[in-house]
Amino acid sequence: MENLKFAVVDLETTGHSPEKGDRIIQIAIMFIENGILTNEYVRFVNPDQKIPVFIQELTDITNEDVKDAPLFEEIAQEVRDLVEGWIFAAHNTNFDLPFLQKEFERCGISKWQGKQIDTVEFSKIMFPSAVSYRLKELTEELGIELAAAHRADDDARATAILLLECMKKVQVVPEKTLTLLHKRSFSLKSDLSIIFYLALVSSRDLEMDTHCSQFRGIPFRRTELMRDTKPRGVKFPDSQTEKDRLLDLAYPSYESRSAQLQFMDATWKSLHDGTEIMVEVPTGIGKTMSYLLPAAVHAVETNQAVIVSTYTNHLADKIMAEEIEIVSKALSVPIQATILKGRSNYISLSKFAELLLSGESSYDNLFTEMQLLVWLTETLTGDVNELNLSGGGMLYIDRIRKRSAKLAEDEQDVDYHQIALDNCRHADLVITNHALLLSDGMSKEQLVEEASGLIIDEAHQFIHAAYKTNEVIFSYTNWKYVMGQIGSESEDSINRRIEGVLLQKKVHRSRYRSNLLEAFEKFSMSFDRAIQELTGPESIQRGHVKGSRLNISLADIPTQHEVFTSVFHSLGVFIKNANHYVNPLTPIWGSLSDKEQAIVAEWQYWIDELRVKMGEWVELFLEDEKQGTVWMEQDQRSIPGSLTVIKSPIDSAPVVRRALDSLFQGERGVIWTSGTLSVKSDERFVARQLGVSANVPVMNLLAPEHFYTGAQIFLVDDMPNIQQVPQHEYVEEVAEAIVQTVMVTEGRLFVLFTSQDMLNQTHELISDSGLLEDYALIAQGISSGSRYRLLKSFRQYEKAVLFGTNSFWEGVDVPGNSLSAIIIVRLPFSSPSEPVFKAKTAQLNKMGKNAFTAYALPEAILRLRQGFGRLIRSSTDTGFFIILDRRIETKSYGVKFLEALPDVPVKKVSLARMVDELNNCYNK
After folding, report:
1. Domain-by-domain residue ranges, the chain?
2. Max alpha carbon distance in the chain (Å)?
3. DSSP strand E in 208-250: where?
4. Secondary structure (3-state) at 278
5. Residue 661, number of CB atoms within 10 A of its CB
6. Rounded average pLDDT over 326-344
7. What's the predicted TM-score (pTM) here?
8. Helix (H) or strand (E) run with residue 472 in it
9. CA end-to-end distance (rounded Å), the chain
10. CB contact burial 472-482 (16+ within 10 A = b; e otherwise)
């Protein structure tokens, strides 16, 4: 690849559209020859117009910087000559190259012609697990210097180094992987095929040392099985002195905390005696280490693993990455730990091999295959959560997730999920998630059967997981996607490919195909009729509309049972015909090529998907609601595309106990722990929802003394009453409060909402006002990315405001000065129209209980406590907890919210007074 020459270009402009008059304000070109950055060209350009303020702030390029610079017309030919004969490269060529071409055209100069390389596309293939492909985040992750993002010179230089890093990585990819990549590279948007070709030629001339094995011709990095360790002498520390000594080995700045030592003792006693306990552990005592250390000792002593379950895979990964080494350090012996996730979190190599052979041709599918081929040379887990894929990529991944326990003979010792299960037999600690413990299947049974104890962290989230794990969900778009795959008549569709196999083998029967198409047509028509019934005007009239969202209990929709029965029967007929259609291939299976067998396997995959959906249809539309509540959701702006129907249990307790009691019997310790397990007025509120016996004690440990001295609570008493004004008026006041608070704190602020609709309105109002244009406004449901990606963005920007809904009230860790304040827009009561909440409260009322005091209020109090827990993560943290909802002082129940929060100063003040006090604090 030494003979490749690249001109790496970056432009800064006044906007995105040269057709509308936007112009270049800075251009930078970095020249790469023989793998070395040899020269550079950097110029400011006078746009002959004022640079918009937000562009000045983004780029740090001012009108003063460009006033004496040349117009682009004066340098256009020079730039055109410089890039002539070079491969044009940029981080998103879809912006830089078209903009530059338009400018050449405007200046009367011929457009550039040649090959182009997009480093976004290239880096997505070569670094498929990168957290982000934005230049700033990607270069930071790869250790590439980017002094000032959004300056053309720095961006172009960083892009050039990124290009070299991608090319360096291509050269160590196994030859067989390069062959598979090169074959697919002709469908890419940029000319990467030349790079893969030259790398392939080079690899054939070299004897490359590769760590990869092959599965059906696919190189992959083999995962080594965990082995039993040699006998290790460990003993649980009896005295406080000994505990302090161990923890001091693990943490350089360790401070002894009585609550931490109490929790260690309680965990050890439960595991040792085989008893069940619940422990509420305050922030700041080192909860994770407090249970991991006694768990590790118990596992080593008994030679049986202790299971640690937490709410999300992300948290499980965090424990594995950050805590296990510390435990080993404290005990001075190696502690073996492994992560086990649900089967569908792992790739199935056999399904991937089938799809590679089956003749996929869409850009999304081919691109995802390339990402996977590179990833398989690196991953040790096969965990698809490691990948950063597009929406189309995730649809592809869904087709190659492992779904069955059955393994072909050549899969036995290479299946990632099976290896993870085997590792559990040799591990001291098995880290998993709540969903796996609550699911059915052999993985859970084997895991729990061989364990000596169970620790459930974030235990209050076990309730939510119980609901989610047992939900049945109908998605209109998902059904239509599957129907589209099987019913499409396009040339490269599976429908046409399977017909091609039948014709090739001379077993095609026109009558069978005619029956198949007729059955699919009848099924499609009955499906569409059912959807019309669900989304008709009666649904809108009877449902609860909030913003553009509507939800309604299925029982309230006046539909006819026969409409849903018709879908079930017609789908059954189609599946029968689909199987009948390919039956002639069974007797001649051995004569089919690998590719033909892969096409048949893909056909069967989509038929199986429809069979699963038929079961869901029965459970949602043809069974009664005794085992749960069923409701429909849709966005009025997108019908029927947004239609979702959900069935959920009403009670979590039976679900939890059924999942655990059937497996975890006998004298084995069970520890439930969380920062929020109780409410002062109802100590066993969470315990009841978990189905924990009344005999199981709930321990409440106290935070270290002076832990919350850096916190203050403000109740803003001149906000309008949320129950007495229209939402738009309340939103205007909320926006004003946010803007004023941000101006004083200079960002580093969470704003927590209870509804996405109010979040959207507030964010839009603030964005349109331009009052916070200096700040990064990161909004859940608006800004792209997962919760963890949004949080990472928040941490990266000094001046940032994060708008979050339910999932940001807890499980989010922003230590130190990265978070200065939290604004609570309204008290976190569940919406009365929320279907499960509505069904739950109706059930309590029917039992003669006050649903508000027994359920709604304690649930909201717990959520507020969780919100407060985001603010103070250590004894050195400072921050302000600002509550805008006046009900906390005007309603009789308000005092219960305040009693639940830590004992910190509470001030009832006007917004103006609060801003003054904040200003004084920051000036100090």
Report:
1. 5-207, 241-336+665-700, 344-426, 472-648, 711-923
2. 86
3. 212-215, 218-221
4. strand
5. 10
6. 90
7. 0.84
8. strand 472-475
9. 59
10. bebbbeebbeb
